[in-house]
Design goal:
alpha/beta, about 35% helix, 7 helices
Length: about 230
């Protein structure tokens, strides 16, 4: 068992006249090595759920436990270290540091882990080659296309050897060719290295690739179906 969610609730503005119940009493288990798409319309709560799973947001109540470690029981320092070492996050807007090159963006999380300059450079070089950007490693984000920036974001998310990668609408700004290439990379990593991928998406191109689709609506689980083959 990789991720166990129990009676998870997230309410924004709880003490106002207009509270927003983004996630409601959710129970869910995600096994190690799954390739999961969380789908639903805008405002359904899927991005909030992804943020809760990755420890980027705190629940109002309930628990998220990853490999037996309950995130709500960790201090801020412990939670930051847990995210750094176990979870890679791919943002819809890429969130690359504009003053750093592609290589430096990928190296950054490893530097936070205290790895040597040589190990950071070797791992970043390997990952950028894996996502097809070996020749662009010294370019800054402004000099890369949207698809190329998203590939850098994927390499960065994988740099720390995470067990889990959370991807928030990773294909929203990409064309069909870039999307297909990005999903190919993620599927290969999932199959060969056993990395658990969890997507927040409404993109049918992602949903078709997923082996499990969780339908989310109004903060609640509406459907949970597995694709075989």
């Amino acid at each position: 068992m990789a991720i166990e969610i129990s009676q998870l609730n997230k309410i924004y503005n709880p003490d106002t006249d207009f509270p927003v119940h983004a996630v409601k009493a959710l129970d869910l288990t995600i096994q190690a090595g799954e390739f999961v798409a969380i789908m639903g319309p805008s405002g359904s709560g899927k991005t909030t759920l992804l943020n809760l799973l990755s420890g980027l947001d705190n629940p109002t109540s309930g628990t998220v436990c990853i490999n037996g470690c309950c995130l709500n029981e960790l201090s801020e320092k412990q939670l930051s270290a847990f995210r750094r070492d176990n979870i890679g996050f791919i943002f819809q807007d890429y969130s690359l540091l504009p003053v750093l090159t592609a290589m430096e963006n990928v190296e950054f999380v490893m530097q936070l882990q205290g790895k040597s300059e040589l190990k950071c450079r070797q791992r970043a070089t390997e990952l950028l080659a894996q996502v097809g950007l070996a020749e662009l490693q010294h370019k800054r984000p402004a000099n890369l296309s949207g698809g190329q920036q998203q590939r850098v974001a994927v390499a960065r998310a994988l740099a720390s050897h995470p067990q889990f990668v959370m991807a928030d609408e990773p294909t929203a700004n990409l064309d069909a060719q870039s999307t297909a290439g990005l999903l190919d990379i993620m599927q290969q990593l999932n199959e060969k290295e056993g990395i658990t991928f969890i997507f927040s998406t409404h993109d049918p191109r992602v949903i078709t690739r997923a082996r499990r689709v969780i339908v989310f609506e109004d903060g609640q689980l509406k459907e949970d179906k597995f694709h075989v083959g």
